[in-house]
Design brief:
Largest sheet: 8 strands, mixed
Distance between the termini: 37 Å
Family: Belongs to the NAD(P)-dependent epimerase/dehydratase family. SDR39U1 subfamily.
InterPro entries: DUF1731, Epimerase_deHydtase, NAD(P)-bd_dom_sf, SDR39U1
Shape: globular
CATH topology: Rossmann fold
Number of helices: 10
CATH class: Alpha Beta
Radius of gyration: 19 Å
Strand content: 15-25%
Order of helices and strands: EHEEEEHEEHEEHEEHEEHHHEHH
Pfam families: DUF1731, Epimerase
Oligomer: single chain
CATH architecture: 3-Layer(aba) Sandwich
Number of strands: 14
Strand order of the largest sheet: 4-3-2-1-5-6-8-12
Mean pLDDT: 90
Protein name: TIGR01777 family protein
Length: about 300
Amino acid sequence: MGKKVLITGGTGSIGKRLTELLLKKGYEVAYLSRKKKAIPSVQVFEWDVEKGYLEQGALDNLHFLIHLAGAGVAEGRWTDKQKKIIISSRTDTITFLANQLKQKNILPAAFISASGSSYYGADSGNTRNTEASPPANDFLSHVTLEWEKAADLIKNQEVRTVKLRTGVVISKEGGAMPKIALPARFGFGAPLGSGKQWVPWIHMDDICQMYIDALENDFWDGAYNAVAPNPVTNEELTKQICIALDKPQWLPNVPAFALKLAFGEMASVVLGSSYLVNERIRKDTEFVYAFPNIKEAVKDVLQ
């Protein structure tokens, strides 16, 4: 049996693809889930953070811990209640695991946590954000700061900890891509707002391979901008989606005020500009992208 990788949020789109790749490499994969369920080739352990429950055996023979759990930021209007859920679903889960590891005196070889490109704010304009850039002070940045602060609870137990600040994941299913491409499928693809806002993106296979590289290589440590090397504008992303689907690009752009009326504060997710530079990936790792350019990435998932 290979080394055990325990994953929170394993049934999400990244978790599913990552599991496929880990199993192919011979790892033993286990999930933490709020409900007991049967998943082929994966052992599922039940947990309930609010009740302080973790099924016996979940942490046995643990080599690596991956944290993907977290409520989607685009799943509903940002009411005060929803904002609390977005934060707590990311942070309370890590706090619980940190306490469990400490109580049981278990030290995994590495802890890899998802994080967000929103660390630098929902709208940082044309500023080129490297990992050394300061955080912003809006809601999404606050979410990411609390997320990473929680991850440090495990780091402080002398566990090598990696935080992957992830942008828009270009994938066949799940995440933002199917929603972004939906209007174009019906012939109404149009840039959002000005269309000039920068979109930090990465192909599903590349982000999953980053998790694996981070597990297997001890020199991965700390925060990384987990994005492709070539950022694009919303206008260019829309153009490539329309080309891949062989659909016309609709004009004019979808006005910003209409999106704000429809989605409220959450409209910042698509109207904000975020230019991320993958400086640490490029300089400090040996990672090789399978999809460095948006044209090939979009074509791969939509055709």
